[in-house]
Amino acid sequence: MGLKGQQTRENILACAEGIILQRGYSGTSLEDIIRDAGVTKGGFFYHFDGKSDLAKKLMLRYLEQDKVFFDALLERAASLTEDPLQQLLIFLKLMAEAMADLPGTHPGCLVASFTYESQQFDDELRDLNRQGVLAWRQLFTEQFEKIVEQYPPKTDRPLLELADMLTTVIEGGIVMSKVLDDRHILPNQLLLYRDYVRRVFGDNQG
What's the pTM? Predict the structure, then answer.
């Protein structure tokens, strides 16, 4: 696929994601996507086999973008300190700042959107969605595993629960921000979680 073809494919995916996050998967037709993307029906089917294939490609794209985002923040944090607890605290601060810099409320989470409409999808896409959430759990749990080697936690809760709590804060913050049309809720929730992590591991630094 040439550069122009890649740009067309990416444009279709971006348009489809924007519409689905606004209207839901079942409320989005191929005609909506084709019209907003400015392509012909033939152009659409050159890149995708249909709406189901588009949904799978959207999910893969979304999960990869999240991975790139998280990895970049973790790499930035690691470049600033070798202390694993400080790395996570910096990671959370950077994420909160990134969310605060959005021009409006967070557009939404494709994982959550597809979960709400899971009956619309086949087992492959539902499993892909699940694996994406498990990947976040693993990524965040790995950070806590590094921390406990140096900082005994003040709780006996499993580390994966602390990791899941971060995912819950992110997803819940997105929902609250959109429902109340308040772009500050998500970054503020991330900072509250950051304070909680600091207290769990006994750190008093800012």
Answer: 0.90
